[in-house]
Amino acid sequence: MKVPKQQELTKDRKPVAQGGGSTPRVGVIGLGYWGPNLVRNFNAVIGENLRACCDRDPTRAAAIARAYPGLKITGDFDAILADDSIDAVAIATPVETHHPLAKAALLAGKSVLVEKPLTASVEQAEELVELAERRGKVLMVDHTFVFSPAVRKMKEIVDSGQLGDILFIDSVRINLGLFQHDVNVVWDLAPHDLSIIDYLLGRLPLSLSAFGAAHAGNGIESIAYLNLDFGGGLIAHFHVNWLSPVKIRHTIVGGTAKSLIYNDLDAVEKIKVYDSGITVRHEDVEDRRRYLIDYRAGDVWSPHIPTQEPLRSMAAHFVECVATGRPPITDGRAGLRVVRILEAAQRSIKAQGGRVTP
To answer: Angle at the Cα of 350 (from 349 to 355), degrees rounded to 5?
Structure first.
């Protein structure tokens, strides 16, 4: 089956105006697992300004051509780069290709959105961040969960100080599959939770330790545990797993005043805030044995979370940033921080849990 030839845009694909500048024209690179989702959402956000898609697999390309008549389809990435009518590209390809494709696009004068994780190494991520800044182009990472209304509400609650000082973060992201052939479970699943924590805290941990085990006979870890120390008594723990018989997406943020539980699989109450905790009374400051602990169990509050597709919001945000020059929430530096943690976690796993600095 041949890749369909580039086609003229049809009149029924209307652009959606964006404030602050002309609507950017976007191309999507990669039409495998995630690419069609990007195509669908960019089509909804910018209509006919979604100009082209690229994939070397003719079957994938043909499927998109059938679903979106008039959208230009090509198997040649260089043709996308040479097309001056395209202002930005969204890259949804295997991790090891992120750096060369994003670098080529930035050098061609295009802004870039990259599927998570940003790159396969810190060195590659640093190069892309520096190149984007030097060229004055937008570099953004598709950390989709940051655009979830529930995670946005988490950020609002944390920033308001309702929880008090954050003491711990505990996160579980487990399910049965999908096994990846090119990255382990840390690089596959942990970027979701690490990007959420980066959004909430905005800083790197001081150190981390990680353990992992491979069970598929290919040396690629399918289970891992990460422990991050942010200093000041704040620690975070992450469990990622491809072997669990059940699917769990669960995060607890514990503070000195209140605690918050985020359950992404709860369709009704994704976030619950618990007015529960402890109060320490010091009867004798000279004798630590006289410290008394009082337990507090108060109300539970579940805020309203609007129904909104995170990927749609992410696509709209990228379009707005390209149009206006506004820095993205999940910019290249946020992507770099996540890659620093991933790379450090990999070093720690190979060192049998040795503590390392990201």
So the answer is: 55
Taking alpha carbons only, the member of 233, 129, 241, 97 closest to residue 175 is: 241
306: Cβ contacts below 8 Å, ≥ 6 apart: 149
**317: region left, alpha or beta (phi > 0 left; psi from -120 to 50 alpha):** alpha
- C-alpha–C-alpha distance, residues 108 and 78, integer Å: 10
Tokens at residue 315, please? 């696509």
From first to last of its 358 residues, the chain has per-residue pLDDT tens of: 333 333 322 233 333 333 446 899 999 999 999 999 999 999 999 999 999 999 999 999 999 999 999 899 999 999 999 999 999 999 999 999 999 999 999 999 999 999 999 999 999 999 999 999 999 999 999 999 999 999 999 999 999 999 999 999 999 999 998 888 889 999 999 999 999 999 999 999 999 999 999 998 888 999 999 999 999 999 999 999 999 999 999 999 999 999 999 999 999 999 999 998 777 776 665 655 666 777 878 899 999 999 999 999 999 999 999 999 999 999 999 999 999 999 999 999 999 999 999 9
Cα angle vertex 21, ends 133, 200, to 5°? 55
Q: What is the spatial distance between Cα 117 and Cα 317, in angstroms, rounded to a whole number?
A: 18
150 φ, ψ to 5°?
-65, -45
Closest by Cα among 225, 261, 226, 236 to 167: 236
In the chain, the domains with their CATH numbers are 26-144+312-331 (3.40.50.720), 146-308+340-350 (3.30.360.10)
In this prediction the pTM is: 0.90
Interatomic CA distance for residues 206 and 198, integer angstroms:
13
